[in-house]
Amino acid sequence: MDLYQQLIIEHSKRPHGEGLRAPFGAQAHHVNPTCGDEITLRVQVEDEVVTDVSYDAVGCSISRASASVLHDLVVGQPVVAVGEVRDAVQHMLTSRGEDTGDEEVLGDAVAFAGVAKYPARVKCALLSWSALADALLRTAPA
């Protein structure tokens, strides 16, 4: 599997969900100190369903494409299902290439399976997913 598959390139060039929007329930800002990638991600949750994810991302094509794919996968999904997808993405990316991912669970995120073979790039692909997890924790009732 090629690191820069066509899907990753397309999402990087034409990202989905990019641009910070309101209203939002929580926001998280994450930085990858290794390479300088940054993302500010906003999430809106209504009735335990993610109704919007918007973001401003600066970084490599893998980081930006991952945020775009994240947007497509989670908007409209129950928070519980989003957590399961996030866990599956993290497992695939940290498997060092042993887990190629389940397309039924991961959708277009399976395109990032090849990234797992490049440890320096794993953090790039996980940055938006980590910001999402953080933002979702901030939306939880106290």
Q: Care to describe what's here?
A:
GO terms for molecular function: iron ion binding; iron-sulfur cluster binding. It comes from Kineococcus rhizosphaerae. The protein is α+β, with helices and mostly antiparallel strands. It has one domain (6-139): Sufe protein. Chain: A, CATH 3.90.1010. Helix content is 44%, strand content 18%. Helix 1 (6-13) packs across helix 2 (61-74), helix 2 packs parallel to helix 5 and helix 3 packs antiparallel against helix 5. The longest helix is centred in the last third of the chain and has 21 residues, at 119-139.
SSE layout:
Layout: H1 6-13, E1 26-31, E2 38-46, E3 49-58, H2 61-74, H3 79-93, H4 103-106, H5 119-139
Antiparallel strand pairs: 1-2, 2-3
Helix pairs in contact: 1-2, 2-5, 3-5
Defining key terms:
142 residues, Sufe protein. Chain: A, 3-stranded antiparallel β-sheet, Nitrogen fixation NifU-like protein, alpha+beta, 5 helices, iron-sulfur cluster binding, NIF_FeS_clus_asmbl_NifU_N, iron ion binding
Per DSSP, what share of the residues sits in E-state strands of 2 or more residues?
15-25%
How do the strands line up in the largest sheet? 1-2-3
Q: Which shape, going by the Cα principal axes?
A: globular
The gyration radius over C-alpha positions equals 14 Å
Number of helices: 5
What is the N-to-C succession of helices and strands? HEEEHHHH
Major sheet details: 3 strands, antiparallel
Q: Give the count of structural domains.
A: 1
What is the count of β-strands?
Answer: 3
The CATH class is Alpha Beta
Distance between the termini: 43 Å
Mean pLDDT, as a whole number? Answer: 91
- Give the name of the CATH architecture: Alpha-Beta Complex
